[in-house]
Amino acid sequence: MTRLIVAIDTPDMDRAAELARATDGHVDAIKLGLEFCYARGFDAVAELARDRQLFLDLKLHDIPNTVAGGLRSLAPLAPALVTIHAAGGRAMIGRAREALEQSCVGRERPRLIAVTVLTSLDGHALHEIGVEGTPEEQVLRLGALALDAGADGLVCSPAELPALRRTFGAEPVLVVPGIRPEGADHGDQARVMTPRAAADAGADWIVVGRPITGSADPGDAARRIRAELTA
Ligand SMILES: O=C(O)c1cc(=O)[nH]c(=O)n1[C@@H]1O[C@H](COP(=O)(O)O)[C@@H](O)[C@H]1O
């Protein structure tokens, strides 16, 4: 069963609280990331995450010691999922996993999720940063490395789901943004699919921001996406 995460990307506490309340009962978790955390800080994150599952999406990417320290500092927030960049490499991912295990003895450990190739990048944009091959090949390469180094799962676009499931099976937690209901504006997302298609292709979680938060009725938008997932 594919679960739904709403990405609450706003610097405003009242707006974030309103979006969280409006989507309560229609989503399985809230995602807070750079925009909210940098503006409001981690007390505000804790407040919004009270009684809700949290996906803390800070996409850590630094030397292993710094990423491990960052994750130890974030552990008290008890997110269900946290993100690092797979491109940080084997040692960084391994130390990240170790830091989470050491910080969460006796309680549930956040799942360590490695971002592969951002869903805003297409083949041309990848070549511009020096990556040869297709987005799918790069996602498979980084996915293999991240899972082997200790990540519990990956962030990928819906387009790579079939290849990831074929290669790595059912176990890795696959978290999938780049989701657009039929007819919705793609915005800055390059590799997109509908909620239903992503669910059929094997997503464990889909991440949806603007199609919900930009709607006149965010609760109803989330409810409709949920219905599409369970149809
Ligand atoms: O890690 C993420 O969640 C993420 C990775 C990625 O490759 N692409 C991506 O869009 N995201 C996040 O997913 C959300 C997508 O938002 P919308 O494009 O508004 O649906 C944003 O909060 C992004 O930060």
UniProtKB/TrEMBL annotation:
Instruction: Report the top EC class in one word.
Output: lyase
- Annotated catalysed reactions: orotidine 5'-phosphate + H(+) = UMP + CO2
One GO cellular component term of this record is:
cytosol
Q: Which InterPro entries match?
A: Aldolase_TIM (IPR013785), OMPdecase (IPR014732), OMPdecase_AS (IPR018089), OMPdecase_bac (IPR047596), OMPdeCOase_dom (IPR001754), RibuloseP-bd_barrel (IPR011060)
- Its EC number is 4.1.1.23
Pathway the protein takes part in? Pyrimidine metabolism; UMP biosynthesis via de novo pathway; UMP from orotate: step 2/2
Molecular function in Gene Ontology:
orotidine-5'-phosphate decarboxylase activity
Query: What keywords sit in the KW lines?
Result: Decarboxylase, Lyase, Pyrimidine biosynthesis
| Gene3D superfamilies documented for this protein | Aldolase class I
Residues holding substrate? 9, 31, 57-66, 119, 180, 189, 209-210
Chain segments annotated as transmembrane = none
**Domain (Orotidine 5'-phosphate decarboxylase) ranges:** 3-225
An example Gene Ontology biological process? 'de novo' UMP biosynthetic process
Indicate the residues that form the catalytic site: 57 (for ompdecase activity), 59 (proton donor), 59 (for ompdecase activity), 62 (for ompdecase activity)
- Please give the subunit comment from the record: Homodimer.
To which protein family does this belong? Belongs to the OMP decarboxylase family. Type 1 subfamily.
Q: What is this protein's function? A: Catalyzes the decarboxylation of orotidine 5'-monophosphate (OMP) to uridine 5'-monophosphate (UMP).
Q: What is this protein called?
A: Orotidine 5'-phosphate decarboxylase
Q: Which organism is it from?
A: Tanticharoenia sakaeratensis NBRC 103193
Q: Which gene encodes it?
A: pyrF
